[in-house]
């Protein structure tokens, strides 16, 4: 028998937070009502009231036998089943509430449920400033502030909101059913009912959300959102489009797709295309993409088949006369892009059928050499311009077979970011690394982070000279503030400082900055 070992953290007289530690093996002793592991350690259940009020800090939750475990996940590999079991427990937020019945009621919220609670709580703006990304943040605020009043208040508010949200879901469902009935009545005699719409997306809201976070790519965002929205609407496989996005590193290609998937609440999988190999060559195949997508979809086939897949570094499988296997990989991808039902090998003993027809598959890469070659042919001496139109012939001449080029449409060229674009990202973007750090220091340590114009100018100078786009902004900001974070983390410095001022010197020596005491 197996169980999850949980660590108890008392938040208040009524609320206890349980953090998962690890899976343990043992047996359940009915006489003593406890779980005994293979080292003869005794653990009581976390929903036992006597355990909750005791001084014990570790208990067990969710007992399961080996047979039940294998049956639950539909596999025969015990080690793999245990991994799934542990992933399930770690993907939930578990707490117990004493509601005066001398028995602790256990609540478990998935990450998506918790995200919804945050969105429905007045605390959302103070915690995340409207930028909610629970999986990415790994519940940082909840696991690192165990004894803070903010956390206790948040849990109390979450408990109150649970029933409220369920009620809102029921009301929303009723409203949707009413709207559907009205639509049916309205269109009954006009034959205008469109049952092909799988999912309707508010493109105006989605575009605004992305433009606040991805700077300098407004036109490309509009094009990409249009394609993705049409793909989610249609039930006709002939209308599905596979866009190709091009542009140098650091201009926001991957970030756009990640944010788009986050906004639409669909699974996102980024896969490095060069790791694939064609039939007859040693390496990875389509199963590897599908396995990753399946896992990223919490092993839900329906979600997997609606997920967003990004085949990155696609330009690196161009046949440039170096690797004969490149053409084999291109051929391997043809059916994947067309839409095919695969018997995907998820594990040694586990196969699942996955249909790629309605997956949103986006192909992308830098394709910098295409732009350089085109500039050279047109007589430009150096550099390249993203304003140039890249044609199918350009891509074929670059080393791609016509069959795969014909399947990629539309072609979207991301702009090279100017110095002004980078400045806007730093000072106004919703994902600005310096603004996020300001918010973090204020919320965690109660310290104001201030920066000079010289600090910003030096970051911009380094980023533009290295030609690495927005990606280096984060690296420069976070590395420069490393010693600042180290200083603030010390318990001896808690509540000691009120302000930090950084100038350009900190980018050369991260120990050079000004601290002002309270």
What does it look like?
By secondary structure, the chain is of the alpha/beta class. It has three domains: 2-162, no CATH class; 203-413, Rossmann fold (3-Layer(aba) Sandwich), CATH 3.40.50.300; 419-517, Helicase, Ruva Protein, domain 3 (Orthogonal Bundle), CATH 1.10.8. It has 22 helices and 17 strands. The strands form four sheets. Strands 1, 2, 3, 4, 5, 6 and 7 form a seven-stranded antiparallel beta sheet that branches. β3 (34-37) and β4 (42-43) form a beta hairpin. It is globular, with a radius of gyration of 27 Å. Mean pLDDT is 79; it is low at 120-148, 183-193 and 380-386.
Number of β-strand runs:
17
By secondary-structure content and strand pairing, the structural class works out as: alpha/beta
Shape: globular
CA-based gyration radius: 27 Å
Largest sheet: 7 strands, antiparallel
- Assembly state: single chain
What is the CATH topology classification name of the largest domain? Rossmann fold
- Tally of structural domains: 3
Low-confidence stretches: 120-148, 183-193, 380-386
Mean pLDDT over the full residue set = 79
Strand content: 15-25%
What is the level 1 CATH name of the largest domain? Alpha Beta
User: Termini, distance in Å?
Assistant: 55 Å
Can you tell me the CATH architecture of the largest domain?
Answer: 3-Layer(aba) Sandwich
User: How many helical elements?
Assistant: 22
The CATH superfamily title of the largest domain: P-loop containing nucleotide triphosphate hydrolases
Measured as a percent range, the helix fraction is 40-55%
